[in-house]
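Record now logged for everyone:
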Amino acid sequence: MSRADDTGPGAEIDALVAAYALDVLEGPERRDVEALLRSSPVLVARLAEFQAAAATWGQGAQVVPPPAMRQRVLAALDDVEQERAPVGGAVGGGLVPERSADEPVAAGAG
């Protein structure tokens, strides 16, 4: 959305209100914008516009991959060299201790 004046003091205030809507202002800048909002219903309406726009950012359209993509990805995996599990010691680079085959699995463990 383009404003009538993208370079004047109004643009700077608009940018500050946008930053306020994104909750990125701190200290004096935040207090200055809050003071402006208390005195300007026009800026309060602009803040609402910015907040409404920001609320939609995480709601992008879901993109369905082409049907052949799964097959291409799986086929490409055939060419990838796999790492071998370590012999003895810990599994997963030392993050998960190895257990013997006859050791019971704790409840909830996989």
Summary: The two ends are 52 Å apart (CA to CA). The helical segments are 9-21, 27-39, 41-55, 68-77.
